User: Which sequence fits this backbone?
């Protein structure tokens, strides 16, 4: 994508002379899609309890539920699959993955896991003790669960603009340094095992954190001896935003930006199912030898031996290749550019969504979409259901259902953002698919006033958004 084209996508629909762009790859293999009838979708959604997570994939036309593990792998990755060393101990693929992570991200030690939440569990079990406090730039569902399950209290220290879907702040993922400093003063540095920093911030709309902000967090925490651990699942996308928006980084390759960004942390949890372009796997990285020894011991309990940790050798090989492919600037611009293209279409129709456009998804603002629905009527869940009924497109809720309940009081968390996420898998769909998605969202928007909400009729104990069931309100 040319710089001229990229800028026009970034401005989302301003009338400019815009040249077309194309994805920097060609299609070698296809998977047929099937469009169901409205009657078939009504039956499927009722059977799924109006929860898109419970739909069968065969009943879905365009699947925007998540970008986690839904990537299309390259010919080189598929070739790497054939190089899988499936030895129980000491797989050669582990050492290739370890070397790749060390070169591309910079951390010394690697513990592989089956996916990102396995790494979150290892980090939480290793560093958190009951009564701990973990600050972070907005919660993520599984991350907060593991922190609270280990006995910690989560504290949101993101800047206020992150909770405002209309704010155009270029780095809405930034940590509020004053909030973080106040928390350290209040609870004491010895009760904060680490600061958790997401890049980008999923629940804020895929919003980035700036290099300057992470550097400032590092300066503050260093004075108190508090480590920083990244959720680095989309740190490469974050690096692109730094390249585009932060002074001093224009023209710098994403590889260099990523290395500098990671250098201000002590390690990271990683879901390899995002940036690294594979369908399964993850890891915990650290520069702390003691944490490494603890985690590589715990991984044997929870996952598998420390040289595979829940992954097959072939998956580790594909991930090592995918990490290097994802660091290509042209690829990353096209990846985020596809999301921006969808945002540009929605913007021209006045459809409300989180702005600026984030890195991996469009987050529809369900509060603005359905202003007549109370948050207890689950507007974001309702919108996901309506979009599926309209077109067979699967999206997901990111609002009060995902926020869950307070671990102590049992009361619902009530996030300011009530969002329905249209998540774009990597290298899977074309620009024509984005046209279909946009037109389907517009159709839902055009009949929004007639929509009623939902009521929850089944609530699981943990991470309810995955398995909760709903019924339509009748009055």
Assistant:
């Amino acid at each position: 994508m040319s710089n001229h084209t990229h800028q026009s996508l970034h401005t989302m629909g301003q009338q400019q002379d815009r040249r077309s762009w194309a994805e920097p790859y060609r299609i070698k293999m296809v998977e047929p899609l099937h469009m169901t009838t409205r009657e078939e979708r009504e039956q499927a959604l009722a059977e799924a309890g109006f929860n898109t997570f419970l739909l069968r994939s065969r009943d879905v036309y365009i699947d925007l539920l998540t970008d986690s593990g839904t990537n299309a792998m390259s010919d080189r990755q598929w070739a790497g699959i054939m190089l899988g060393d499936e030895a129980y101990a000491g797989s050669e693929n582990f050492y290739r993955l370890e070397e790749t992570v060390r070169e591309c991200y910079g951390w010394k030690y690697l513990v592989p896991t089956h996916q990102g939440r396995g790494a979150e569990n290892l980090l939480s079990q290793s560093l958190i003790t009951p009564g701990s406090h973990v600050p972070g730039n907005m919660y993520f569902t599984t991350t907060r669960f593991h922190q609270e399950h280990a006995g910690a209290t989560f504290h949101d220290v993101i800047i206020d603009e992150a909770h405002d879907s209309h704010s155009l702040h270029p780095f809405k993922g930034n940590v509020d340094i004053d909030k973080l400093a106040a928390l350290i003063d209040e609870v004491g540095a010895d009760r904060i095992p680490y600061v958790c920093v997401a890049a980008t911030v999923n629940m804020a709309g895929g919003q980035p954190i700036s290099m300057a902000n992470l550097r400032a967090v590092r300066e503050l925490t260093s004075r108190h001896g508090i480590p920083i651990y990244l959720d680095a699942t989309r740190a490469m996308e974050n690096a692109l935003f730094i390249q585009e928006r932060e002074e001093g980084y224009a023209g710098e390759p994403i590889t260099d930006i990523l290395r500098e960004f990671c250098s201000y942390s002590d390690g990271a949890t990683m879901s390899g199912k995002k940036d690294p372009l594979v369908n399964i796997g993850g890891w915990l990285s650290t520069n702390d030898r003691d944490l490494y020894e603890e985690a590589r011991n715990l991984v044997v309990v929870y996952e598998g031996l420390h040289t595979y940790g829940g992954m097959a050798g072939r998956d580790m090989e594909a991930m090592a290749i995918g990490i290097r492919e994802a660091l290509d600037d042209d690829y990353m611009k096209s990846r985020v550019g596809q999301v921006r293209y969808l945002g540009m279409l929605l913007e021209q129709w006045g459809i409300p969504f989180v702005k600026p456009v984030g890195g991996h998804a469009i987050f529809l603002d369900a509060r603005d979409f359905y202003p007549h629905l109370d948050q207890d009527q689950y507007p974001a869940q309702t919108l996901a259901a309506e979009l599926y009924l309209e077109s067979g497109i699967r999206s997901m809720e990111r609002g009060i259902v995902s926020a869950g309940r307070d671990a102590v009081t049992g009361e619902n968390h009530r996030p300011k953002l009530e969002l329905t996420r249209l998540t774009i898998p990597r290298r899977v769909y074309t620009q024509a698919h984005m046209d279909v998605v946009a037109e389907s969202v517009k159709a839902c928007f055009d009949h929004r006033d007639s929509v009623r909400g939902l009521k929850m009729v089944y609530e699981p104990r943990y991470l309810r958004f995955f398995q909760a069931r709903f019924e339509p309100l009748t009055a």
About this structure: The longest strand covers residues 109-113. The radius of gyration is 21 Å.
